[in-house]
Predict the structure.
Amino acid sequence: MSSENGGYFLYHSIGQYPAKSADFAAAMSEFASVWGRADDDQWTYLLSRRAEFVDLWRRLIGAAENTVTTCENVTQGLHMLVTSLPDDYLRGRKVLVAADCFPSNHFLLSGLQERLGFKLETVQLRQGASWVEDEDMIAKWDRDVALALVTWVSSTSSRKADMTTLAAHGRAMGSLVGVDITQAAGLLPFAVDAPAVDFVLSTSLKWMCGAPGAGILYVRPELIDSCQPQLRGWFSQDDPFNWDIDRFAYAPDIRRFDNGTPGIVAAAATVPALHWHAEMDKAGLLAHNRALTGKLIAAADDLRLGLVTPREEAQRGGSVMIKLRSVEAARQLIPQLRRHQLYADNRGAILRLSPGHMTSAEATDRLIGLLQDTA
Ligand SMILES: Cc1ncc(COP(=O)(O)O)c(C=O)c1O
């Protein structure tokens, strides 16, 4: 591991593993050679890459066959799901979301509320808090909530929601429960049926180290039956080659969420990363993250900097967010870190640090040293 790569703290943004560049290039080179060959083998190859991508994701989240499909990103997957629900399902009811959800999901839902006739209920942070508490979510979660979107791990605080409690409450209220697992998929174990949830969204580009454009949507089999995706096309059918325009019928499973010819490049580019991840010792990946995040938390305490991430391991994802003295201090620190081959980012005065597989303890100590100089 080179010391340059050891200074990488951006797993909340893009995940890296040592062979990523070579794997990506090989996958794209193979793709190009198949796609550019004057024979008739293209679709067999491409569709099998897509199936492999879906299968690897399915295994990661414990999803049954025909319950996971591709989407470009989380926002798009959420749109696919929400607009597929029966016409009267959301009308006159509430959709519940926390204010610290990924903003893109909020932008989508707030725009859809008028069109689909639901009220978006956004649970706010308490004064001075860094994340929305589960109990505040539950306090607003009544029988009028048709659907709740839970962010498993927040991108601003790395705080992990208690899915068991939230899903049980959602079930009791008769709501559909969806989870955005983007910020911890591949780092923390997750299973679609423990606790059972109705839909799951993620991208592949963070801890899974995949390509942009390789999102996934899981839908619980019992829910699939009642979904009628708005964006539909020949690939939404059991047999895409049914071209009888008077005889469209949705596929009986997740394939109904497909529409026209699927874009497979991002999935194919991501397959090697998913294999890499599948073969890794998951407990080891997490233990490495825990050791380095523990160091960062201790350093923040020593320097009397505010911790914007829960202290308890069980309540956090893979990042440590630290509040610096000012936005200016954060703005100055990032390029200074870069000069030392240390890569992090900031949101306002908050420094975001996510050590992963390639991040070294030595680089973490160097980063802490620089933090000491600025604090
Ligand atoms: C919690 C969470 N959800 C979703 C996303 C990405 O959303 P999209 O794939 O729509 O860009 C991110 C990216 O940082 C995220 O942290």
